Structure formats: C-alpha cells, structure tokens
## 1
Amino acid sequence: DTEVTQTPKHLVMGMTNKKSLKCEQHMGHRAMYWYKQKAKKPPELMFVYSYEKLSINESVPSRFSPECPNSSLLNLHLHALQPEDSALYLCASSREDRAGGGYTFGSGTRLTVV
Amino acid sequence: GDSVTQMEGPVTLSEEAFLTINCTYTATGYPSLFWYVQYPGEGLQLLLKATKADDKGSNKGFEATYRKETTSFHLEKGSVQVSDSAVYFCALTAGNQGGKLIFGQGTELSVKP
C-alpha cells in the first residue's frame, strides 16, 4: 500500500459545527503532516507528528485540533471555523529520514465553511 | 532562511511543445530537491526527486538535474501532452530544518491541443 487516504473528500460545515477530517497510511511512515492549501497556492504546513507526538505547530488557531491515535492514523478536529478557513486540507506522510525521501500526499478534503 | 523560487505562470503551450519550468533555491547545507504535480481537483503527487548534486530525477518523460553551482533544479519535458496540464511545485527539504518541505509558489501549465 503506497497511498495516503483522506476522508471525507468534500465537507461543508457551518461556523458552529464540529467535524473531523481523517487520514490513514499503511506505509510504515512515522511522520505525518497536515497542510492547508488555497487555490493554486503552495500548501502551508499546519502540524507535524513524529512518532505519534506533535512536534511542530505552525501557530495554527486553536479551532483546529490535531490528533494522532496511532502510527497509521491522523485526525484534524474542526470547531467554530470561519469562512476564510475554506480550503483544501492535505495530509502527508514520510519516513523518519524525511529529508531525502519526499512526502506522500493524500488527495485532500475540500472544506467549505458557510 | 531556505527558499524556492519558480518562474511565474500561467504557462500555455501547444501539444508536443518543449517545456521548461525554472526553479532556483537558497539553502544552507545540502538540500534534497523535488518536483510535485497537482492535477485539477487532486492532491500533490511526487513527480521526481534528486538528493545530491548532479543527480538527475526523471519520471513520465519529465527530467530535472540538481545543479549545485547554479542552485537550480529546472523541470523539462521534450513533448508535452494535454494530460500534463496541472500545477507544478518545486520544493526542497533541508536536514538542518528537520526535513521541513519548503515549496515554491507553483507554476500552472496549460497544454492546448
């Protein structure tokens, strides 16, 4: 299995809703990432998990809450989002030696906040 | 800090034309270099990579050579197809930044039949 699987593919939520994005990989990668991407812009790093521990939080607002239940799963819990949070949310994973191997990205969850 | 600069798009080409997308980088240490491609409505796919100077990455007819002397990693393809229409991102990781993936701004390619 060489894929990163993200669900759901599309999500529409109101500003008072609580929802979660899910990401799964079975490549044995020990680093997992959440990115936010606006149309035709490069992805922006949000969070990094290394060996199931949060290692980087790029000053992301607390309305985004990541969770890594085990080495294969990564969640992003969403609460009280704003319309400007509408974007494509990408999950990625890499081996520990991530400098040389590159990242594997999922196909993303397209989020619309209304 | 480390950075990547790509030629601005959009780039519009006719089918079978030659493609070059320029990419230059600034990095301390010895970065690994990547090209990612994003087709409409999809996530990013690793297109090719090079981990040391003079390495050539290649995939699906695309090539890029790691040039340390010019700090460049230009993407080339000899004959583009309509199916190559996508956004292309040049990126690097540097060990002294914990392997963080740093992207260029992306170049949108549109290939017309």
Note: Chain A has a mean pLDDT of 92.
## 2
Amino acid sequence: AQSVTQLGSHVSVSEGALVLLRCNYSSSVPPYLFWYVQYPNQGLQLLLKYTTGATLVKGINGFEAEFKKSETSFHLTKPSAHMSDAAEYFCAVSDRLDMRFGAGTRLTVKP
Amino acid sequence: DAGVIQSPRHEVTEMGQEVTLRCKPISGHDYLFWYRQTMMRGLELLIYFNNNVPIDDSGMPEDRFSAKMPNASFSTLKIQPSEPRDSAVYFCASSLTGAGQNTEAFFGQGTRLTVV
C-alpha cells in the first residue's frame, strides 16, 4: 500500500519569501510522485511530477521539487512567493496503478 | 481535447433521493478515477477503472455508492439513497498508461453535491 503525509495543513508566507511545502511518502515499489495545485472551485492541476531520472524536477509557475529516496520525501519549493500562488497544494504518490493524495496544504501569501 | 468533463457542476438533492454523477474522460485514456473531497477527510480515492473494468473499489464508503463504466468514454457514480453526510465535491480523473507507466491524472472540474 502507498500513502502520503503532508506536514502542515496551513502554511503562510510573505510575498517574495521562500515557499516550502513538505511531503513524505511510503510505497512498496519505486514511486511516481506528483504535486497538484487546486484553486478555489477548480479541479486539480498538475504542477510537476517525478517518475525516473533527475531527482530535481521543475514545474510550472517557478515551482520545483526534489525526490530524496533516503528521506522518502518530495518537498515542494519556490524561491519567491507571489500572491497568485495562494491555493491548496496536494502531494500524490502512484504505484503505476492508482494514485493516492495527501491531505493537502493550504498556502496563504501575505502582502 | 476538452479535458475531463463532469456533470452536473452542482447538485442539490433531498435526503433519500438517488443521485447520479457523470464523467467523460479524455479520449484515449485507459484509467478513470473517482475521488471525493471534503474538509474533514481531504481527497479520497473511491474507485478506479482500467479499460472500463473496476480494479479497486475499496474506497467506496458504503453499498449506497456504486460506479459503472459502460464504455471507454463514460462513467457514472451513483448514490442511492443519498444522505447529508455524502455532501462533498466529487472529482473524476483520467490518465493514460504508456509503456507500462501511469502518467499523471487529469482532473475534471468536479461536481459539488449538497444533500439536504
């Protein structure tokens, strides 16, 4: 079985500050890992994904995440937060069959 | 492609009534997922299909919930009878396997269900 734990249901940063959203996973097989973003009243949109190869992956809107097998982590970062980044972020793990999501982290960006 | 299409976008129904949610996956995708999102429980996987066949329905909360996929372009999630605690946003998602790999899931806009 696979699962995802997102540390911190709410994260608040100032505009221009570093964004760090934490995700740890468990999987019995080499995982595929994803970060999705959800804006109010919208579906989930893929930010980035890791399947194989380079462990540092870059996504849309300046986000990136690093797969660290030894730490079973896939934390999402962005060097400088923008007001438009305010949304809910979901980490997900796939064993190539189904996809399981974390509980989500709501990001607030203060002016 | 128009993406994953769900209907209706909003549904308000009375307790005890039957509710049917509909989903049209992206053409060519062979996996279809139904998720439920609530404040209390987050995003839960209810059931998923591969090539129209249900693979894992262990997330379906009760026998009141049923899902079908009669063909590659259509799926339904039915709740009968509905209860207030079923109120949630229900998402459908689809994905494509290639070379044995499952790519990311593409989500519909969701159906917001309110049972009063």
Note: The interface with chain B takes residues 32, 34, 36, 42-46, 49, 51, 90, 92, 94, 96-104 of chain A (CB under 8 Å).
